[in-house]
Amino acid sequence: MIRIEDLSVAFEDTEAVKHVSLELIDGEVLGVVGESGSGKSVTALTLMGLIPDSAVVTSGRVLFDDVALREAGKPCDKALYRKYQGARMSMVFQEPMTSLNPTQRVGKQVEEMLRLHTEWPAEERKEKVLEAFRSVGLKGVEKVYSCYPHQLSGGMRQRVMIAMAVILHPRLIVADEPTTALDVTIQNQIIELLREINRKQNNAMLFITHDLNLARRLCSRIAVMKDGKVVELGETESIFRNPREAYTKRLIEAVPSRMKRRRNSGAGEGGFPMGNPMGETGPGNPGEEVSPKPILQVRDLWVYYKDGNNSLFARKKKQCVVENAAFELYPGESLGLVGESGCGKTSLSKAILGMNREVKGEIVHTTVRPQMIFQDPYSSLNPSKTIGWLLMEPLRARAALDRSFAMTGEEMEAAAYDMLHKVGMEEKYFHRKPSQLSGGQRQRVSIGQALITHPGMIVADEPVSALDVTIQAQIMELMQELQQEMHLSYLFISHDINVVYQMCDRIMVMKDGRIIECGETEEIFRHPREEYTKLLLGNS
């Protein structure tokens, strides 16, 4: 059905895709894996007719049922693509917040697919949208239908995007990191949903991911890309059991796993004593050192959001999203926070940083200027500024607020270059803008922004979710090295249980706005008390 023949795509003087050839037949699921910047997304966007006009197809062509959708030397035929996009081929994008219109309710945005391609009446269209929402694991679908994108969690927005892509059962689904923002339980639901649609509709799927475990579960064949080229292509199990290329072996070895030894914690030295995290003394703990004071204390915390209302005069009601949260974070500790999308993880973190003041309870932290690494890097980076400017902005902001903080412009620039190196990026990116980077590269810039002012505490909201496995391993290593060097404490939010296992000293499990279990990492993994915790661990 799909043939990509000798495809090369260039942006100005940079060739992003180099002589790629791939085929998909009806009913096949082909995985495309590789590091950020390897050409995976550019290949998919070219197939879908969505690359910008500045991109040039320098060789090859793209065919759908022997119809040439794109050919080298010819401009993109947008009228032809409109006949295919949505109805015959559909795409799930990597970053839902930037793919959804922020000024329209999500239900209407999904319904637009049906308005464009069917003649169904409004009532039937709405029911189909609600049915699609249910099928991707969304709860309270009537309420979701009426929400704006910013009123949904990252995982919920991603599920809306998936519902939009599959609602017309197209023959081809291009899924670009479709489960990046999802927790493990919903991730499994989405994978099963895509597999079920694949079986029932016999559609083809191009599944782009940096998560090799997902590719192994879903795909019949895998193409490994590096530096714009396909370096290995074959049956999935053959690739995993007997990879030919050294690069493929490196990708497989970098996948986070509970089978691997946990990384050394920064908390054991200079942090809280692992056997006595609460610093208890007395008859039950004779001779033990008293733990250092926590750098963050949260007591009886309730977090609210105000419900929106179209009327300017209507009184807005408060909705409780976090109930009775209580915990402590110690110097040098990595405290993991896990739970399903929408359970209140990000809401709790925003309250801790003062980004949401609709709270009741007590938040006490002793660190100076705690920083946050956001889940969606594209929406948190100013698209009009260069990467160098963005990295220097936290330094300029600190200098404006703190007269004792003195750095010249040259020193700020040097610090920005240094941070660029630390997060694994070359100097050439200093003068580029966020739109010119891959999703993983943008996430690394966000991490650099958070670390450049040397804060005492970092709230990391899915800090490695957008990164491929090799860079993910590098960033995790970097965060732990900086934790030792800068005496950092992390509140580490993630839906990836294996990442949390390798990164965190203790784990908190959150469900429906409440912290239901908290303990040392090994203890939680070996002896979870709550059924929900067992479900999270069993589905990972």
Question: Any overview of this molecule?
Answer:
The chain is an alpha/beta fold and 540 residues long. The chain has helices at residues 40-48, 78-84, 96-99, 106-117, 122-135, 141-145, 154-166, 184-201, 212-218, 236-241, 246-253, 345-352, 377-380, 387-401, 409-422, 439-451, 469-486, 497-503, 521-526, 531-539; strands at 2-11, 14-24, 29-34, 55-64, 67-71, 89-92, 172-176, 204-209, 221-226, 229-235, 296-306, 318-329, 334-338, 359-365, 371-373, 457-461, 489-493, 506-511, 514-520. It is built from 20 helices and 19 strands. Strands 6-7-8-3-9-10 form a 6-stranded mixed β-sheet, sandwiched between helices. Strands 15-16-17-13-18-19 form a 6-stranded mixed β-sheet, with helices on both faces. A 4-stranded antiparallel β-sheet has the order 2-1-4-5, covered by helices on one side. α14 (387-401) runs parallel beside α16. The longest helix is centred in the middle third of the chain and has 18 residues, at 184-201. It is globular and about 70 Å long. The model is unreliable at 266-287 and 310-314 (pLDDT under 50).
